[in-house]
């Protein structure tokens, strides 16, 4: 036997995964500030802790709500939107997209199931565009950080973007384009392990009467609590850095003001700078405090959500490149229009 044992590759991967965790960044930020600029350690941490504690009640309610919806099987209700006439499906898909309690991996099998059942691409596109923008926890967190006008504006933008994309796709397909939008062998059963098809069974709202559903509720409660606390802790720590170190003049010069230019810039920047819907509100609060316009903030948030990795993966894995390009184009256009309208309203 060798004196030195071979390193365990799985333990190395686990250690690397731990280092890449948001918790690592949450710890490293104050450590680095204390080393490089000790005088600003208290301001950075104070901004982060104060903001985080202010959203704890919202986090608790959001975690409870999403766990309940998952345990009840609310996905089956969402599936009902994709039955009937095309116009009805587009409206319901855009409206219910923001209510779907899906995790990232469930988006793909859900959409695959819809396409397998023959749902039109127009309704699917409406759901695709509205779903990443808002859900019950995101609505509550956005309201607690940016205020209810911004949260309601984002929810309206989600529905409007879904309708915009759904009817555009319907028109394009009726014009004889996108006649074969799906990739070969793209629709079928998912192997991601997310559970049974959302099209089977009916929701059971009295989850406390079913032991299996109670187990799901407890598991989802723990998982989502850890997820939200982890990402919001990171978001507020980054907000503390932003407010402390980024001059307001820089933000105001780039995405401040009331013209279309800052709104368009925010939409373009929002795609490569994607931040999930839980991180974005605190950082946008910091940017708006530094001079970012309300319209630019809305544009940035909409574009960032549409360009999220799960959202784009769902589209890319199931449809051809032309549909994917249309999805991105609709997302950017919708983000700019949302920013312009929101700027005019506020």
UniProtKB/TrEMBL annotation:
One GO CC annotation, please? plasma membrane
User: Where in the cell is the protein located?
Assistant: Cell membrane
Question: Primary place of residence?
Answer: membrane
InterPro entries attached to this UniProt entry: DUF318, UPF0718_permease
Membrane-crossing ranges are 21-41, 47-69, 90-119, 125-148, 155-173, 225-243, 250-275, 295-316, 323-345
Domain of life of the organism in this record?
Answer: Bacteria
Q: Which UniProt keywords apply?
A: Cell membrane, Membrane, Transmembrane, Transmembrane helix
Keyword Calcium carried by entry: no
Region forming the signal peptide: none
UniProt lists the family membership as follows: Belongs to the UPF0718 family.
Indicate the segments annotated as coiled coil, or none if absent.
none
Topologically, how does it sit relative to the membrane? Multi-pass membrane protein
**Protein name, per record:** Permease
């Amino acid at each position: 036997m060798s004196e030195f044992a071979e390193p365990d590759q799985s333990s190395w991967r686990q250690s690397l995964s731990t280092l890449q965790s948001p918790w690592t960044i949450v710890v490293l930020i104050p450590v680095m500030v204390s080393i490089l600029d000790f005088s600003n350690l208290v301001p950075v941490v104070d901004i982060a802790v104060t903001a985080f504690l202010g959203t704890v009640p919202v986090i608790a309610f959001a975690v409870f709500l999403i766990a309940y919806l998952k345990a009840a099987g609310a996905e089956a209700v969402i599936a009902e939107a994709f039955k009937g006439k095309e116009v009805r499906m587009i409206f319901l898909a855009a409206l219910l997209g923001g209510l779907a309690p899906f995790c990232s991996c469930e988006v793909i099998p859900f959409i695959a199931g819809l396409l397998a059942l023959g749902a039109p691409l127009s309704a699917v596109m409406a759901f695709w565009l509205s779903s990443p923008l808002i859900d019950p926890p995101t609505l509550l967190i956005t309201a607690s950080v940016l205020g209810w006008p911004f949260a309601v504006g984002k929810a309206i933008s989600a529905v409007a973007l879904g309708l915009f994309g759904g009817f555009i796709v319907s028109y394009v397909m009726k014009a004889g384009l996108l006649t074969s939008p799906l990739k070969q062998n793209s629709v079928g059963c998912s192997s991601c392990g997310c559970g049974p098809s959302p099209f089977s069974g009916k929701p059971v709202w009295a989850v406390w009467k079913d032991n299996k559903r109670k187990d799901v509720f407890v598991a989802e409660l723990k998982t989502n609590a850890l997820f939200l606390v982890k990402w919001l802790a990171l978001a507020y720590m980054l907000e503390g850095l932003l407010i402390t170190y980024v001059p307001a003049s820089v933000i105001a010069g780039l995405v401040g003001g009331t013209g279309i230019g800052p709104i368009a810039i925010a939409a373009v920047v929002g795609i490569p700078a994607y931040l999930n819907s839980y991180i974005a509100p605190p950082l946008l609060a910091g940017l708006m405090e530094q001079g970012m316009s309300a319209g630019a903030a809305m544009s940035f948030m909409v574009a960032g959500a549409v360009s999220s990795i799960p959202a784009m993966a769902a589209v890319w894995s199931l449809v051809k490149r032309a549909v994917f390009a249309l999805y991105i184009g609709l997302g950017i256009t919708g983000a700019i229009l949302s920013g312009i309208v929101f700027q005019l309203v506020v």
